[in-house]
Specification:
binds 1-O-pyrophosphono-5-O-phosphono-alpha-D-ribofuranose; four-stranded antiparallel sheet; 176 residues; alpha/beta; Rossmann fold; cytoplasm; magnesium ion binding; binds guanine; 38% strand; six-stranded mixed sheet
């Protein structure tokens, strides 16, 4: 068990399991985008570990960029997604692969969908390491999912609780 600020968390998904999931999802990404010179866009902050592992496994030509969006305060979504660092690259007519650590309510994804459509991409697909089907209320497709998880707050592997826990190499869930 670990403590971050005032909350306790227990081990939930091991590093080995995360690696297996990333291997599988990266195979799918290689298969579908290997010859398309995609632009990978990682959604900061949470996706930095996952994004680096996926792009390290990518075997074709690609470009890599990041945007930074934020909407969580403590363990809850505020419902308001702020763009903290926008796109700084021309994506017109490009194939884009969004790399997210988690899709939860979908608020962040809806914002990204608008940003990408406005930028004139040829196509874009969403890859997310974790997905909470019970929490997802939107219709933007999540095309590649590493793991479906219940509607519980998790930390580790890039995901934080009020800034702490991103460096943990396995995933923990909030202790009930
Ligand atoms: O589907 P949603 O309910 O929108 O949640 C998903 C988003 O929440 C987290 O980001 P957060 O807003 O916590 O910012 P961070 O990545 O900087 O921690 C995560 O990295 C996703 O981008
Ligand atoms: N740390 C963390 N951030 C999130 N953002 C959306 N869902 C979650 C979650 O379960 N944990």
């Amino acid at each position: 068990m670990i403590k971050l600020h005032d909350l306790e968390f227990e081990p939930y998904i091991s590093e080995e399991e995360i690696t297996q999931v990333i291997d599988r999802i990266s195979d799918e990404v290689n298969r579908d985008f290997g010859d398309k010179t995609p632009v990978f866009i990682g959604v900061l902050n949470g996706s930095f570990m996952f994004a680096s592992e996926v792009v390290k496994r990518f075997q074709g030509d690609c470009e890599i960029s990041f945007v930074k969006l934020g909407s969580y305060k403590g363990t809850e979504s505020t419902g308001e997604v702020k763009t903290l660092l926008g796109l700084n690259q021309d994506l017109k007519d490009r194939t884009v692969v969004l790399l997210e650590d988690i899709v939860d309510t979908g608020n962040t994804l809806v914002e990204l969908d608008q940003i990408l459509k406005q930028s004139g991409v040829k196509e874009y697909k969403v890859v997310s390491l974790f997905f909470k089907p019970e929490a997802y209320k939107k219709s933007v497709p999540v095309d590649y999912i590493g793991m479906e998880i219940p509607n519980k707050f998790i930390v580790g592997y890039g995901l934080d609780y009020d800034g702490l826990g991103r460096n943990l190499t396995q995933v923990y869930k909030r202790k009930e």
